[in-house]
Amino acid sequence: MIKQLRDAIFYFSAADFHWPDLHALMPHGHSLDMDMLTVQDTNKYKQKDLIDNPHIAAWYFEKRFKLLFEKVLVPKWNLKDW
User: Fold this and answer.
1) Global pTM?
2) How far apart are CA 48 and CA 11, in angstroms?
3) Which of 1, 14, 21, 26 qualifies as a cystine partner to 49, CB 3.0-4.6 A?
4) What DSSP line would sit under 3-68, residue for residue?
5) Is 74 helix (H, G, I), strand (E, B) or coil?
6) What letter would DSSP give residue 2?
7) pLDDT of the chain along its 82 residues, tens only?
8) Residue 17's pLDDT is what?
9) CB count, 10 Å around CB of 30?
C-alpha cells in the first residue's frame, strides 16, 4: 500500500494577523501606538500593511517555515531526502 502512494503534499497558511513580530517589521509597526486604537482600527492598519508590503510578509513566512522545517520537522521525522 505504501509503495502505491504518491508524493506527500503539505499546505501551510499564515496566521498573519496574529504575529506581532511580523507587524513590527511593517511600516505602521512602530509608528502607531496600537494600544490606543480599537481592535478594528488596529486590524485596518495590519491589513493595509500586508496588502501594501507583500514582500515583507512573504519573506517572513518563508523564514518561519524554514525554521519550522529545519528545527522541528526534520529532527522529529528524521528526514533525509526531502
Assistant:
1) 0.75
2) 25
3) 26
4) GG-----------GGG-HHHHHSSTTTTTS-GGGS-HHHHHHHHHHHHHH-HHHHHHHHHHHHHHH
5) helix
6) G
7) 456 667 777 778 888 888 999 999 999 887 767 678 898 998 999 999 999 999 999 999 999 999 999 999 999 999 887 6
8) 85
9) 11
The span from the CA of 57 to the CA of 23, in Å, is 9
What pLDDT score was predicted for residue 56?
A: 97
- What grid cell was written down for 31? 509608528
Q: Which amino acid is at 9?
A: I
Backbone φ/ψ region at 41: left (φ over 0), alpha (ψ -120 to 50), beta: alpha
Q: Contact, 57 vs 22, CB < 8 A?
A: yes
In one-letter notation, the amino acid at residue 3 is K
C-alpha cell at 57: 510578509
